[in-house]
């Protein structure tokens, strides 16, 4: 397959067309990192890294706007709510301006700044948004842009440096007919806001050459925040100091009769006479730094770096309320694990060369449909850093093991750490650290249980790189010297265990290692080259066994298939094959030269593949057909970098962990049932206006399904692969069937089991 290229959208982009498709998607976003806040008398708005949320001050209702709603942010850096237009304007670090119509939820992507070819990409960041007289002034790292709120179009761009050069504009405000622009290195510059020729840099004059951070108009005065930790006032006379703070401002804003100065550890709230109403230095029991603040009436709202948005009042600033929507603690998710009743989420990571540095110190998140998100904080994880993978005890969902790519292996029971296994408590045949001086560095990855209850894992950069914690709690190590060159220099991805108890171990430079201790500690290594196994590359990133016992192998340069894992038992060498497809009439290799990060197999034996920077593909069981291709551009995926894929075999829901948040897609491929006792049809009835498919779930594999009208005329027939089939309510895909009751006749492959269901269609 040819390499997939993605281009930036170049037109004003309206996204209500997502609505129908997005009914199949769910979002699981973190709102902990608050980047900006805006207030109205009845609602407060906040932005996180790539989403918007708001709270009603009347009903306390929380509302979120994410990629599920068509809101495709990059990294949010500024926000403004327009009361006159009932629209939220959101600026990003790449110059993208998003406009959310709060009346109907539609989203506009305005890409004029993104597409400015004359400006370097790293200079397009939007720092501040300010509304005045029907115009939105956009402060950027290169200068100032004007956006007309009546026409929803960009106007002029002002380069306001002393000689017309680009300057970093931090904030703007209009005071007494003059627009003031606070710059990073050129002081405050100003010009008449009515001047029709502001595109001429000479019309902008220096107001003050000092080092300034912010400027707001408040109670008929110009209030200024200086880098010297002081606030000043200007009233067309002289600049006068009005207050000394403890730290430099990170946010400075006014709303109605309140002025708020926010620094990393202080929030100051003033009334129109500059009387201090509140000085907040910490939120009880919350360790964080402040990022922004706003006050409306007696209510104070504070954004934090990693704990969300809190509120208090000017009358009792010691009592706080958390106003953050439920979600994981971070958007950058490294790996997932779907348990029958929960979803586990890890944030620790390593790079493509398996380097865990800088080390991550994050907790473990857990999501349950019944109770939402919970967290095992880092402080309760025995100091384990860079947590990489979760595996479940197949006989006890409440017992999980978490590999750390620096600290060893965590054993958790009922959401509490029982043991941190290291080289110190696993004996001579247990875990190993790197040689001194790195003797606290224990790189464990990919724990997986076999059918006998033994837990297998890899231990990178040591000779005995394969470890097992047996069901009797004894540790055993296996030397990989016979399978790989210089195992002390090799790192490994997550391993899997097939039905024969063969372990398949991806390595970063020595291909794929197969091992089975039940066959005389047999090793087979599959590498690149026609005589060595025909892998696309010796850097193997992921492996998966499908329902036909084929081994799918994702490498740094493409995909390979081992026709059967059974071959390991009888052969001394193994050769993999590429999947050849026809594209534009030419034979092409599927995913040729693509970096494959993860492969997951659904209940119908379809494969879901994550392509680095290219989104995710669902392909048919043999790989010959692409069933879905999801990218940030055509779906609610918040990023094209999918780190991990997990599938709920019972419901068919597919979870995607990205570097910008987690979403899920409600697939239809579920695991086959053992009998037909739990067949169900959804939706039933099919009501007018429904445009989706009817799901018939709870099937056994290879069940024959026939759908007829009430008179017995056949309208659809298929054979299940897995536990679910879908019907588009058409007669063999041609025309929509009429209103009426339709009979569903289900039988097993040998006819020993049957079931009859009904579905009503209402047009």
UniProtKB/TrEMBL annotation:
This protein's UniProt keywords: Signal
Presence of the UniProt keyword Signal in the record: yes
Pfam families in alphabetical order: PorZ_N_b_propeller, Reg_prop
Entries under InterPro entries matching the protein: PorZ_N, Quino_amine_DH_bsu, Reg_prop, Secre_tail, WD40/YVTN_repeat-like_dom_sf
Domain PorZ N-terminal beta-propeller: 44-205
Residues of the signal peptide: 1-19
Superkingdom, natural source: Bacteria
Statement: the UniProt record of this protein carries the keyword Cytoplasm: no
Name of protein: T9SS type A sorting domain-containing protein
Organism: Flavobacterium supellecticarium
């Amino acid at each position: 397959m040819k390499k997939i290229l993605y281009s930036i959208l170049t037109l004003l982009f309206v996204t209500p067309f997502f609505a129908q498709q997005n009914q199949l998607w769910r979002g699981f976003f973190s709102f902990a990192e608050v980047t900006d806040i805006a207030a109205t008398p009845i609602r407060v708005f906040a932005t996180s890294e790539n989403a918007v949320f708001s709270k009603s001050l009347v009903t306390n209702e929380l509302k979120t706007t994410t990629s599920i709603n068509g809101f495709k942010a990059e990294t949010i850096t500024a926000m403004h709510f327009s009361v006159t237009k009932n629209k939220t304007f959101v600026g990003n670090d790449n110059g993208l301006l998003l406009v959310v119509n709060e009346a109907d939820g539609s989203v506009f992507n305005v890409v004029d700044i993104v597409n400015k070819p004359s400006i370097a990409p790293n200079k397009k960041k939007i720092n501040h948004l300010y509304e005045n007289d029907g115009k939105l002034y956009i402060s950027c790292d290169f200068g100032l842009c004007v956006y007309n709120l009546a026409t929803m179009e960009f106007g002029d761009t002002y380069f306001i440096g002393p000689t017309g050069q680009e300057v970093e504009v931090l904030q703007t405000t209009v005071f007494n007919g003059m627009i003031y622009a606070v710059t990073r290195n050129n002081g405050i510059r100003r010009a008449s806001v009515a001047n029709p020729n502001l595109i001429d840099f000479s019309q902008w004059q220096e107001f003050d050459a000092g080092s300034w951070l912010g400027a707001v108009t408040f109670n008929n005065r110009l209030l200024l925040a200086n880098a010297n930790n002081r606030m000043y006032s200007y009233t067309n006379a002289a600049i006068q100091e009005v207050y000394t703070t403890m730290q430099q401002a990170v946010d400075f804003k006014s709303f109605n009769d309140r002025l708020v100065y926010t620094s990393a550890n202080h929030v100051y709230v003033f009334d129109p006479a500059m009387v201090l109403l509140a000085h907040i230095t910490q939120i009880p029991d919350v360790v964080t730094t402040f990022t922004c603040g706003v006050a409306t009436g007696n209510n104070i709202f504070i954004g934090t770096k990693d704990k969300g948005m809190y509120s208090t009042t000017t009358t009792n600033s010691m009592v706080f309320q958390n106003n953050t929507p439920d979600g994981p603690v971070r958007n950058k998710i490294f790996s997932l694990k779907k348990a029958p009743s929960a979803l586990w989420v890890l944030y620790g990571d390593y790079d493509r060369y398996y380097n865990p540095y800088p080390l991550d110190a994050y907790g473990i998140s857990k999501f349950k449909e019944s109770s939402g998100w919970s967290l095992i904080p880092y402080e309760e994880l025995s100091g384990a850093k860079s947590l990489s993978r979760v595996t479940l005890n197949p006989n006890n969902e409440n017992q999980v093991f978490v590999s750390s790519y620096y600290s060893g292996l965590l054993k958790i029971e009922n959401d509490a750490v029982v043991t941190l296994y290291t080289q110190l408590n696993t004996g001579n045949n247990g875990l190993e650290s790197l040689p001194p001086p790195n003797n606290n560095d224990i790189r464990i990855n990919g724990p997986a249980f076999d059918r006998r209850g033994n837990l297998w894992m890899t231990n990178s950069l040591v000779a005995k790189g394969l470890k097992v914690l047996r069901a009797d709690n004894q540790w055993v190590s296996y030397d990989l010297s016979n399978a790989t060159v210089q195992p002390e220099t090799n790192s490994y991805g997550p391993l899997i265990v097939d039905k024969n108890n063969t372990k398949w171990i991806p390595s970063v430079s020595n291909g794929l290692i197969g091992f089975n201790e039940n066959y005389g500690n047999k090793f087979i290594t599959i590498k690149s080259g026609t005589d060595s196994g025909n892998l696309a590359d010796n850097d193997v990133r992921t492996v998966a066994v499908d329902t036909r016992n084929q081994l799918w192998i994702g490498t740094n340069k493409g995909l390979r298939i081992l026709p059967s894992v059974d071959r390991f038992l009888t052969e001394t060498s193994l050769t993999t094959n590429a999947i050849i497809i026809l594209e534009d009439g030419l034979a092409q290799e599927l995913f040729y030269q693509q970096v494959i990060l993860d492969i997951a197999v659904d209940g119908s034996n379809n494969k879901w593949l994550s392509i680095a920077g290219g989104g995710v593909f669902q392909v048919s069981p043999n790989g010959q057909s692409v069933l879905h291709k999801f990218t940030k551009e055509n779906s609610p995926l918040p990023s094209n970098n999918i780190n991990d894929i997990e599938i709920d075999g019972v419901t068919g829901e597919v979870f995607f962990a990205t570097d910008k948040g987690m979403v899920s897609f409600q697939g239809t491929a579920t695991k086959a049932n053992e009998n037909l006792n739990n067949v169900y049809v959804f939706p039933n009835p099919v009501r007018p206006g429904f445009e989706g498919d009817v799901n018939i779930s709870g099937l056994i594999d290879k069940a024959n399904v026939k759908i007829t009208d009430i008179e017995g005329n056949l309208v659809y027939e298929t054979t299940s692969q897995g536990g679910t089939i879908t019907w588009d309510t058409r007669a063999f895909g041609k025309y929509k069937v009429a209103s009426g009751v339709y009979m569903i006749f289900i039988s097993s492959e040998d006819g020993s089991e049957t079931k009859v269901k009904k579905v009503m269609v209402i047009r």
